């Protein structure tokens, strides 16, 4: 019989790539999806990867404990990947309560459902480098103290510690991946890499002339999502649960990343980017750079895609999307 995995957040960027990865490995993949009034757009990312009809979508909500208990029972999953969250930092200041409920308490709900229904399953929690926030060490690893700088990061810190606590309290196989920023053509349009690559594509095709950004000096350790979902799976294949930093080990400023995108399209960034002070955050995470040595040593994992290759792939994908939309509108 195939191995069974349950993914919360399967309609998001990571969920879609992870589902594709697990299907490739022969898993039966179940996904938790929220009912939506815009059902025609649900599963767009799964469709983009050509796997929508290969996954089993079960309706529920991370905030509704009863629904996720039912989903655990229906899936009989051996591996549970908790990726669902309100994941956008800026929105977490506008919706701090909701962010706390979904991103923090949602993890407790998932752990409780698993403890009651599938205590032998293995659990992955999507922790975040945002938890390092106001960095306490120049390069961050598993031993670096956390200092969250947004309601999102505070919520992720709770979810991280509650996962560690369930592991220690109940002996559950629960691991946290402290993932640094990872991107792809399926990244949400509100995140800076995708906002830039989408903006560059629009400018190149004459659909826009300017791109407004916030803090160009912020630096992030960016990698490709394809690599990062492999790390999630590797964590759950280990005999003992543990926590791992997953990062490329290289940091790039928003300015340098944007320049890569403009240059890839044959454009000059200076001709199109405007800084909008309204986009600067109330508290910023200035610089993140992770040390993935533990993941390399124990999981045999490392990032394989450079930020340059990833940004080029994203620009090309956005150019294709906008060109296709324009062709469709003209037809
Ligand atoms: P994403 O694209 O924003 O996806 C979030 C997913 O969560 C969506 O499928 C969303 O469903 C679902 N969701 C939100 N609220 C829910 C609820 N109440 N019940 C059930 N599902 C709900 O995020 P991502 O980039 O794939 O990231 C995956 C996870 O990794 C997140 O937890 C994120 O915080 C974390 N993380 C991401 C990064 C990164 O760089 N991408 C880095 C570190 C950690 P809908 O489609 O219905 O909205
Ligand atoms: P985050 O690291 O999870 O918050 O990922 P984002 O992609 O949202 O932001 C990465 C960095 O880019 C942060 O330091 C932002 O302040 C910075 N940034 C600069 N301009 C923008 C912008 O227009 N949108 C977003 N989302 N971030 C921006």
Any overview of this molecule?
- With 331 residues, this protein is an alpha/beta fold.
- The chain folds into two domains: 4-183 and 225-246, 3-Layer(aba) Sandwich (Rossmann fold); 192-220 and 250-330, UDP-galactose 4-epimerase, domain 1.
- 43% of the residues lie in helices and 15% in strands.
- It contains eleven helices and 13 strands.
- The strands form four sheets. The chain has a seven-stranded parallel sheet, sandwiched between helices.
- Strand 2, helix 2 and strand 3 form a beta-alpha-beta unit.
- Helix 5 packs parallel to helix 6.
- The protein is globular.
- The protein starts with a strand and ends with a helix.
- The model has no long low-confidence stretch (mean pLDDT 97).
- Bound molecules: NADP nicotinamide-adenine-dinucleotide phosphate and guanosine-5'-diphosphate (GDP).
- The site of NADP nicotinamide-adenine-dinucleotide phosphate has 24 residues, from helix 1 and strand 5.
Short characterization:
With 331 residues, the chain is an alpha/beta fold. It is built from 11 helices and 13 strands. Helix 7 packs across helix 11 and helix 9 packs across helix 11.
């Amino acid at each position: 019989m195939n191995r069974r995995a349950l993914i919360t957040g399967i309609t998001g960027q990571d969920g879609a790539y992870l589902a594709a990865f697990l299907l490739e490995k022969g898993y039966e993949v179940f996904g938790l999806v929220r009912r939506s009034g815009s059902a025609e757009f649900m599963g767009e990312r799964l469709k983009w990867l050509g796997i929508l009809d290969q996954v089993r979508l079960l309706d529920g909500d991370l905030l509704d404990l009863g629904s996720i208990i039912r989903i655990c029972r229906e899936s009989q999953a051996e591996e549970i990947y908790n990726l669902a969250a309100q994941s956008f930092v800026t929105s977490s200041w506008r919706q701090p309560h909701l962010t706390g409920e979904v991103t923090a308490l949602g993890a407790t709900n998932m752990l409780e459902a698993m403890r009651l229904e599938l205590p032998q399953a293995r659990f992955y929690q999507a922790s975040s480098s945002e938890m390092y926030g106001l960095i306490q060490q120049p390069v961050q690893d598993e031993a670096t103290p956390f200092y969250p700088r947004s309601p999102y990061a505070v919520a992720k810190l709770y979810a991280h510690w509650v996962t560690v606590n369930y592991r220690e309290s109940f002996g559950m196989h629960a691991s946290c991946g402290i993932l640094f920023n990872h991107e792809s053509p399926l990244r949400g349009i509100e995140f800076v890499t995708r906002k830039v690559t989408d903006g560059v594509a629009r400018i190149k095709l004459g659909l826009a002339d300017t791109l407004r950004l916030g803090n160009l000096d912020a630096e992030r350790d960016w990698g490709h999502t394809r690599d990062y979902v492999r790390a999630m799976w590797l964590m759950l294949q280990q005999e003992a649960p543990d926590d791992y930093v997953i990062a490329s080990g290289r940091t790039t400023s928003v300015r340098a990343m944007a320049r890569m995108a403009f240059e890839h399209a044959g454009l000059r960034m200076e001709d199109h980017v405007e800084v909008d002070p309204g986009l600067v955050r109330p508290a910023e995470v200035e610089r993140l750079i992770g040390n993935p040595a533990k993941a390399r040593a124990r999981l045999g994992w490392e990032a394989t895609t450079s930020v340059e290759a990833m940004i080029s792939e994203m620009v090309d994908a956005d150019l294709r999307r906008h060109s296709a939309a324009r062709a469709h509108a003209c037809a």
